[in-house]
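Sharing in case it's useful to others searching the archive later.

Someone asked me privately for the predicted structure of Glycosyltransferase family 2 protein, so I'm posting the question and my answer publicly. Question first, with the sequence:
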Amino acid sequence: MCKKLKMVNEKFLSVVVPCYNEQETIPIFFETMEKINVQIPDYTIDYFFVDDGSKDDSLNEMRKLNAAHPDRVHYLTFSRNFGKESALLAGLQAADGELVAVMDVDLQDPPELILTMLEGIQKEGHDCVAARRVSRDGEPPIRSFFARLFYRLINKISETPIVDGARDFRLMTRQVVDAILDVQEYNRFSKGIFGWVGFDTKYIEYKNVERVAGDTSWSFWQLLRYSLDGIVSFSEFPLSIASWVGIISFIFSFIFLIIIVIRAAVHGDPTPGWPSMVSIFLMIGGLQLFCLGIVGKYVGNIYLETKNRPRYIIKEKK
Ligand code: UDP
Ligand code: MG
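And my answer, the predicted structure tokens:
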């Protein structure tokens, strides 16, 4: 890119910003970040906006910023909505700064934290500094409840640590970014990948901030699906549920069998009641289908991995 024409000693802090229908927030985000830029003496911020197939004027907002700052504002746009994970990947692949930050465009990731993060990397020598929100004010209680439950569950059943409340918002050294890009899987769950690559990560805590404008693009069901994808990507535990349920029901049925045989021998009465029989059949059938569903989910993921389709398609890039 045109970087080679720049001053020899100029160091870049690239900010990767996935955007989906964010026409209102893009200009506000840029303005706020520019104020941060002047407070950082050692680095110049350059931007990598990723338009994830927005249906509003987001792309034009990006074009405008690029026209005004062609060497610092880059953007790429997808041929359709591929989801935030794909947008993050495309942004990280495009970003070429020595340090790279990932940020939401809605200012829910407080930009001033970049300064603290930079200090964490420059002065304290961490490889990555990530933001972790400690409160969920402003979020529907039911969503917070399920979010907490998800973190508790996944940390029990996965070997990869996934920190409760940790956002994608983080500043990373080039080494960490390259490690993340080396993870080639199709079903990407960034929260897990960040933890999986390791490195010395510091978490800074902050209180939840609401969006400056626009609406969240995640529905409850989308979040639920996302959490299940996370579990399937980072834990094989669900696959063992079938074996455990099988062993437990085998032990119980064996005990029952002995009881029935003894009862028939002592009292000579055949065990009555086909309704109880039907209930047991239904229960076992249900459990079998449930376990089959879990296996199916993993098989589905293998199917997607082996098809090896591109994770996004770029329509325009600047
Ligand atoms: N986003 C995206 N593609 C999508 C959905 C969201 O790139 O399909 C972006 C969105 O523009 C924002 C970030 O991902 O910059 C977080 O989205 P949002 O604010 O809707 O999620 P929340 O903060 O509610 O988790
Ligand atoms: Mg948001």
